[in-house]
Amino acid sequence: MTQVRPTPAASAPLWERDEELAAVEEALDTLCADNSSSGSLLVLRGEAGLGKTALLAETRRIAETRGCTVWSARGSETLSSVPFNVVRQLLQPALLSLMPEEAREYLGDWYDIAGPALGITDPGDRQADPQGVCDGLVAAVRRLARRDWPLVLLIDDAHWADQETLRWLAAFAEHVGEQNVLVVVARRPGETSGDSARHLDTIAAAGSSVATLSALTPDATTGLTRATLGAHADAPFCREVWAVTGGNPYETVELLAKVQDSELEPTESAADELRALNRAARGGGLVARLETLGIESTRFAWAAAILGTGISVDLVAELATMNLDEAVRCAEKLRTARILTEADPAGVQPDDGDLQFVHPLIATAVYNSIPDALRTAMHGIAARVVTDNGQGAAVAARHLLEVHPDDDEELVEQLREAAREHLAVGAPDAARRRLERALLEPPLPAVHARVLHELGCATLLTAPAKTIDHLQTALAMPGLDGDERVDAVYRLSQALLHNDQLEEAVRTVEAEAARHPAGPARLRLQAVQFMWEGIHAGETTSPGRSTRLAELARTCTGRDNPERALLILRGFDAMARGENAEEVVELCDRALVNGRLAPGLGWTDPEWGIELPMMPASAYAYTDRLDRAEALYNEALRAYESAGWSGGHLSLAHAYVGLGLRRRGRLREAEASLRKSLALAERVGRRLPLHWSATCNLVDTLLARGHVQEAWDIADQYGFAPPYPSTIVLPDPRSVRGRLLLAVGRTKDGINELEAAEKAAEARGHHNPVLAPWAVDLTRALASEDPERAARLATEVRRSAERLGTDTAIGEALRCAAALETGQRAVRLAEQAVTYLEASPCQYEHAAARVEYGIAARSATELRRGITLAQSCGADGLVLQGEAVALR
């Protein structure tokens, strides 16, 4: 943890900082007023030396006088590649002060998710989800803030913070008002690019106060000079101090310290010597001053700069190859020269060391003064030193990144191990950097392909295009065989899918399957091929695909996972094609083990991904086995939440839980789950299949509720319009958008959309009228302007429904037919629809049928039953429709 407690000289930069300190006082007033008060975020921006660190020190002093708990951390230019470095500085000491069982109690379910990132527990076997880890860190602060209220977090040099910390801080900042904690962030403008710059912009946008520090005015510089040197400092001398330093508070303080050391009289006659003294206080002058302390002290300072953190005298001595007594003497010289200082014992974590640089500018100047070749060599030695001291591959890796490539087999293995550690704590970008460096070494031919494979897996979620290149290169090299090669091909196909190259994904697994003899490997690849073809939403598919899949699955008994996968794929395909529901259910049942997903096919198992287990759940959902569908959907939700997967997987889980609730007719609960799904999907990115799933199901549910304008607003806000994704979405988005257009009165556009849905469904062979309900809505839309076509469509809907054989499908077909009739025939059809839908698990459709039957039969009793059922579903539109008729 970084020291920000001011020394006497460091308080000088607080000149002309009244406005910033007033903002701090106001924020502390709010924080300390009540333990339920809202939190706030203050951002201090300023170039190097303008007093950001001093303001943080004063914030600490003020906060501690009010009884606040204060934790602090600092980014470092040489440590920005170390994941979670700054957030560990901030939170780890507080957590390590607890007994392990206490820490687990405070963090609850987040302990195993955020604990590894914070270094308080070992990571699990699986790759951690970065978004889940980020959410866990947010939750950790929230819970610790309740324990340690009033809590103040100080982060210095945030522009040098690691990307993982900045991601957490950006997420935390967006909800800081709910956190009951004061966060003060100091940073330089510029200095960053890419994701780090984006995160810093998010943090600034969330700040309740963003102060841009300016240099001291001539008057303030005069006041500071006289306060330091005495009132006798004359005006020309003071003006020259300002001219030489440009009003930079840090340079002013250092220059005045040099004036005191040199016993220079602060008069006009001595003003000419100020420029020379100022050069000695920074940059090359600082280096020259360091050299006057002797070669041993210089070596000590260089070693400290290489370490960057954990600057203990014994570790520096080992790196600088000097004995301990000599190192102690050097440390004392550097403290006297105001280059190093003792770390604040009240604010350091166990591995922070005994020393730190007085100011980041000094650390940077010392580090840059090391000759290039020597700096590289020292990083190599530092890697060995920290490894020998038990700090692990991940800590050593930041030093290995700086070493020149040299065909070092051991270095490659160290970097691979570091990458595995980073993936296990939720830092895939750090893992990527380690593996990219390992490739530069380069690896031995026998492991080169494996490093590329590992790199491809590390970039799968963040950069699928790069993954494609890495894995294609790996597969073209020797070294990947057996299951490892099959896995690489599968990962490549996943990356192609995520990069919207689905046809290439299919061709890739098809070609690899042809290379293998009959057996589990080939069967797995064939299953993957069928899976990607099965989720493709385009208008072309492999000729005879369903026939070939049926033939292959016919011989499967479900004895192993490749066979179970094929049974699932066959069941899903049969459901989408509208084949007999009993046969669909039988296929899916055979693929499960005691009604559950087999080990290796589970929601968090990496071998198959999320697509496969979603298929039997969805097949059940659209064949009226909602109890089984809901069990699988809820199992997915629990699995992802307990594993800390807060990204796309959790979004899809909420979307499908919402789909199950929508099918069941529990519309209010469905809407709540789908809004959670959409919020998560927004964090991952728009136009992705998971975003479509959330939006499509939410629009469908809002329409069922009768909230038409809200459904239209959601569609407009989140881009629920063509072009549609290349993977299928449940339910069919064209059908849902067509229904939406009809609901808002755009009848012609709605008909066009539904006809496009008809064309797409025909091309895919999807004839399940519940999965793609375009025909029902198109029939109703055409009833008045083209009754003959409407009648033909109603007949086709009835035929498809009877082929599927579910109560819901047949009941909906009868509702559709009744809408085209009048008189007693309409009443009879409506009554039959009620009979079927009463036996269906889909209560919304049952409520709609009841209301329509009550209207057709002019039965107040049936109408009232329909309204009551609609109320229980949350179908406000049906309620209003029924009540309006009842009043007439």
Automatic annotation (TrEMBL):
<protein>
    <submittedName>
        <fullName>ATP-binding protein</fullName>
    </submittedName>
</protein>
<dbReference type="InterPro" id="IPR041664">
    <property type="entry name" value="AAA_16"/>
</dbReference>
<dbReference type="Pfam" id="PF13191">
    <property type="entry name" value="AAA_16"/>
</dbReference>
<keyword id="KW-0547">Nucleotide-binding</keyword>
<dbReference type="GO" id="GO:0005524">
    <property type="term" value="F:ATP binding"/>
</dbReference>
<feature type="domain" description="Orc1-like AAA ATPase">
    <location>
        <begin position="15"/>
        <end position="184"/>
    </location>
</feature>
<dbReference type="InterPro" id="IPR027417">
    <property type="entry name" value="P-loop_NTPase"/>
</dbReference>
<dbReference type="InterPro" id="IPR011990">
    <property type="entry name" value="TPR-like_helical_dom_sf"/>
</dbReference>
<keyword id="KW-0067">ATP-binding</keyword>
